[in-house]
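job 3f2a | input accepted
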Amino acid sequence: MKPDTLLVHAGGGLEPGSGAIAPSIHLSTTFEHTPEGEATNDHVYIRMGNPSQDRLEEALSAIEDGAESLVYASGMAAVTGCVQTLEPGAHVLMHRDVYSVTRAVGKELLPNWNIEVSDVDMTDLGAVGRAVRPQTALLWAETPSNPAMDVIDIGAVAAIAHAAGARLAVDNTFATPVMQRPLQHGADIVMHSMTKFLGGHSDVQGGALVFREGGDRVERARRVRTVTGSVLSPFNAWLVLRGLRSLGCRMARHVANAEAIAAAMAGHPGIEGVDYPGLPDHPGHAVATRQMDGYGGMLSLRVRGTREDALQVASKVRLIRNATSLGGVESLIEHRQSIEGPGSVTAPNLLRLSPGLEAAEDLIGDLVQALG
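job 3f2a | predicted structure (372 res):
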């Protein structure tokens, strides 16, 4: 089945009893069980699972080609739920450019659990091999990365991880399953911030882990989610499932707009550089061509000049909105160093751009007038 067809139908099916085409939202927090506490209809309590969540998890497993999925209240709940399955004394190796709050989990939380974190440039396979330790249990990658748009060879890094007895987790938020399916390239776990492209309308928060194999790792993560209560609400599960139905169509426009903007900005005198894997001169272009079905709907612009010059451009856009997040129908721009705050490793002249579904000509025109 083609990916676009799978997105429409995964986790679907007629509602028993009613024949409804669109799935119902099951808002109940509790379900009837026997006097001994055994479930009579698959569920007992919302923190352990609910029918709306089940449908979404089934859909995510199908579209990412995974064995099992777990959904969470946010993308960061999914990240934290993943690393909380590790044993004390473990080592986590992260790519040098990851979402700033993921980095914060490594720096601020994991040391409290006696888990050490270090980072490395995962585009340099030799450096990855040298950075792996006997205690390394997990490698964490983003590709394309946020916000530098680095492209990591998933298959090659997975081979390094597996040779060391470790697992590879890939944040696939930027690419989405439409563009890239990391499990097919050897990754063990895929993470999504479903708040972004999967939800697609800037009105729902959620996260997910998709596992290449079932078994103990999944059950440990499920237990952590149950104990910590980081479960996704039924309404948000329903919204994300609805978002998946149009993901293929939406990504086609997001990618087309990103490609058009990247090409237009690459030759603009006010732009020092464009970070987009679809450009032939991007360092990761060849890897992206091999492992992606398209180059994604995100890009970053490095404004010629200083931090103040970049902020000036961001202040002059009229159609594009200054706001956090990405993957919605509206176009958003953000000076990431300002948002990330002290300790940011992002270039001071970088603006991250999430092209929406507007006409590319209007978005390019807005950027051109903002650049002066």
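job 3f2a | Residues 3-245 form a domain with the Aspartate Aminotransferase; domain 2 fold (CATH 3.40.640.10).
job 3f2a | closed
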